[in-house]
Every structure is written in structure tokens, then in C-alpha cells.
Design a protein that fits this description.
globular, single chain, 3-stranded antiparallel β-sheet, 429 residues, two-stranded antiparallel sheet, 14 helices, mainly alpha, Glycosyltransferase, 9% strand
């Protein structure tokens, strides 16, 4: 039975400037007002609970979906969810959300399974696997982008945990990837491969969430791809209400995922300042949602956000501008959650407004629902783990820069950024 939701409680530095990779990656996050910091802490704890409770205790593989009410769901893991889960373990240990040693042991068990038992192809993993056995599910593909998210989680653990085995396992998992296998003489990395069809036709040839994938491949210790691959992919531009930015008419998450780990602040390559670009894309999306208020009156500059998520008809790839997918008035909190570093004030306002207006209708064991519709009363029964993950990581980056500071200690990433020509845009002196 449906119910109605009701109100409740760029810099201009010289082009010759270079980056000091030993000193540039420390946090510059500004302290938040106490009430905002407390809200984000509560939200992050709830998000982390999903990754702790929905990971297999022996293999560490995280379920692709989790029930809003915390109940049981099918045992299919996504490797991207596991990558977010590995990153989340580092924060849980840092903030002492678990007993001493628990996060370390879970990270160690996860990396052991990935290194020794999980099926792989040239170091790349199948997108969906059984959370207990690691066996391929649903005839899915070996996925380059989801493997990259998993690797980012492993490399975050390598830098955070002072543990020789974790560091060795994470390094071996990364170093065994044959990047050239999916590069195939370039100029682009492919999306993946299946045993039935061979290499997928799609390639990472246009701006998307793939920036960390290319940096991992270019900075790799073995089987790396040429630095020129970074410049090969297209960067089309969009205009929306006076805002001009790189975009490919895809959901908002494409402007978020690479930024969960890679710190693009105060630096640019010959094409763009990607942090500024994501900020502009988020501003455009917020304006787009506010305009939808003429059709769905609950949309506003306080309540906004649509990105790939659960919907009343299953998983939906929706958003804008321009309008895409079966937009029906639903709100997707991870659109704002994943945008917290880009628009801190506006994103916080949206998340707090949703919580205060709709309370426990949309707030459950793992935080805000994956999606909800104030007009019809629909609330998603499931959380999509990667949406919860991007909210968790970007909330902490907005608070402290923790994930940026930890991940950017990986020399392979800073080496890749040097190779493709990133330079500082921070004011000199």
C-alpha cells in the first residue's frame, strides 16, 4: 500500500607549474559546523553498517544490493561494492567504529580471497560473483571499470593498514593485472570480455567515470599502457543555464566516482580542471532538478538529485541535463551524497532536508533510502551498495579528505598523473 510522504521534523597558475607530489595531497577540507559534522557522522556510520553486515565474513565480498530493512537478500556480490567496502574498512578503523583489529582482519581476509581464490582473467574480475565462492553470476562480463574500483579499494588498504601481509596482497593483486590485454594496441581501454563473446565492443573512448581506470593502467608497475591513452578519449562539452563543462549526457555518478579516491583538487591537465568540472556539472544538475518542480512540485533547490538507482520498475539509468530515463518524481540521495565535496552547502542542505521532512519513512538501518518518491510514497526496498559507497566516501572527503590523503600515497597514481601532464593550479607562495 502506498503512502504519501508528509512534512516532519581554478586557479590561474603558470602553465609551467609542477606538482610537489610529496606535499600536495594533504587535506584542505574546511571544518564543518558541529551540527553538519554530526549529521554526516551519523550518515557515514549507517552507510558503513551496510558494508560490514553485507560482506561475507570469510571472503569479504560485498553484496550488490542490501535490503532497506536490513533483511536477507540474494548472495550476489559486485566487485565494485567490494572495492567500496575495502575503502570503508579503513575509515571504520580510523574512526574506531569497530573493535581494535576487526577492520584489519576483514581487509586481510578479503585480499587473501581476491589474491588466492577469486577467479580472474588477466587480473581482471567478473562484475558479479557469488559472495561465498567468488564464482561468476548471470553470465556477466569481466569488467575493467568495476575491477578498477576494486583495485582502488585494495590500494587504499595498502596505504592505510600498517600490515605487511595486507600491503603485499594488495600489491600483488594490482601488479598481476595485464592492462595491455584490454588495451589491445589502443588507443582506448575496453569495457570488458566474456567467455561467450570475447572482447566487448564498447570502449572507454569518451569522458566518464573512468579516470581512475586510466591512471591505474598508465601508472602500473607492469603491463602498463602508454600515457598518450589519457589524451585519446573525447571530452565533449555541454551548456546548461550559462554553465559550460565536460559531459556526456550520462547520470551524475560519472562526475563522482573517480573523485572518491583520486584528489583532483588544485590541479589540471591540458584539457580541464576535473574537480571544477564536476562542481559545474553538479550545479547544472541541481538547476535541472529545480526546473522539474513545474512537473513534480517537491523538486526544488533544497530537494534535488537523480542518478542511476533503484526505481519502482527496477534499476534505472536516469538523470540530466538533458532529461534521460523514466523520470517520475523520485529523488536519489546519492546524487547529493556523492557531490558533497563539490557543493558542500547545497548537498548538505538536500540530505538534511530529506531526513528532516520524511524521517524514518526514508531513513533505515543503512541511512537514507536508495531512492524515494514524495508524491507517490514509494521508497526503494533495496540499497544499491555502490550508491551507499559513494555517499560514505565523499562525505568523509568533504569532512577531512581522508580517502584522498590515503589513496594518493600510492606512487603509481602520482606517477601516472605526472606522466599525463597534471600541473598545479594552486596560488604560488
Amino acid at each position: 500500500m502506498l503512502w504519501k510522504l508528509t512534512l516532519g521534523t581554478a586557479g590561474a597558475a603558470s602553465a609551467a607549474a609542477t606538482i610537489d607530489f610529496d606535499n600536495q595531497w594533504s587535506s584542505t577540507a574546511r571544518p564543518l559546523p558541529p551540527q553538519d559534522d554530526a549529521f554526516l557522522d551519523e550518515l557515514e556510520r549507517a552507510c558503513f553498517r551496510l558494508f560490514w553486515e553485507n560482506a561475507h565474513p570469510q571472503t569479504g565480498q560485498v553484496k550488490d544490493l542490501a535490503r532497506f530493512d536490513g533483511g536477507e537478500i540474494n548472495p550476489v556480490s559486485s566487485i565494485a561494492a567490494t572495492g567500496f567496502g575495502l575503502s570503508a574498512l579503513c575509515l571504520a578503523d580510523q574512526r574506531e567504529w569497530l573493535k581494535p583489529g576487526e577492520a584489519r582482519e576483514r581487509a586481510r581476509a578479503t585480499l587473501r580471497f581476491l589474491a588466492r581464490q577469486m577467479p580472474h582473467k588477466h587480473g581482471f574480475y567478473f562484475h558479479f560473483v557469488d559472495w561465498k565462492t567468488g564464482k561468476r553470476q548471470w553470465r556477466c562480463e569481466v569488467s575493467s571499470i568495476d575491477s578498477a574500483i576494486l583495485l582502488c579499494g585494495a590500494l587504499t588498504c595498502r596505504q592505510y593498514f600498517n600490515d605487511a601481509e595486507i600491503q603485499d596482497l594488495a600489491g600483488r593483486i594490482y601488479d598481476r593485472v595485464d592492462w595491455q590485454w584490454l588495451y589491445r594496441d589502443g588507443p582506448f581501454l575496453g569495457h570488458g570480455w566474456t567467455p561467450e563473446r570475447g572482447f566487448l565492443a564498447s570502449q572507454w573512448d569518451t569522458y566518464s567515470e573512468h579516470m581512475m581506470l586510466y591512471l591505474l593502467a598508465i601508472g602500473a608497475n607492469r603491463k602498463a599502457i602508454p600515457a598518450d591513452a589519457w589524451n585519446a578519449w573525447k571530452r565533449p562539452r555541454s551548456d546548461h543555464e550559462g554553465l559550460n563543462y565536460i559531459d556526456t549526457q550520462a547520470p551524475l555518478f560519472i562526475h563522482q566516482y573517480a573523485h572518491a579516491w583520486v584528489d583532483f583538487r588544485n590541479r589540471r591537465d591540458e584539457h580541464a580542471d576535473y574537480f571544477e568540472n564536476s562542481t559545474l556539472a553538479t550545479q547544472a544538475h541541481r538547476k535541472f532538478c529545480a526546473r522539474l518542480g513545474t512537473e513534480f512540485p517537491h523538486y526544488s533547490e533544497e530537494l534535488w538529485g537523480i542518478t542511476a538507482s533503484e526505481s519502482p520498475k527496477g534499476y534505472a539509468v536516469w538523470g540530466g541535463p538533458p532529461r534521460m530515463g523514466p523520470i517520475d518524481g523520485s529523488i536519489v540521495p546519492s546524487a547529493a551524497g556523492g557531490s558533497l565535496p563539490f557543493l558542500p552547502k547545497e548537498s548538505l542542505q538536500m540530505l538534511r532536508t530529506a531526513r528532516e521532512r520524511y524521517g524514518n519513512y526514508i531513513w533505515g538501518r543503512y541511512g537514507l533510502a536508495d531512492a524515494f518518491n514524495p508524491a507517490t510514497g514509494w521508497v526503494a526496498r533495496n540499497h544499491v551498495a555502490i550508491n551507499t559507497g559513494i555517499t560514505l566516501m565523499m562525505a568523509e572527503n568533504a569532512r577531512t579528505g581522508f580517502f584522498w590523503e590515503t589513496f594518493m600515497k600510492n606512487r603509481e597514481i602520482t606517477t601516472a598523473m605526472q606522466r599525463v601532464g597534471f600541473r598545479s593550479t594552486a596560488p604560488l607562495g
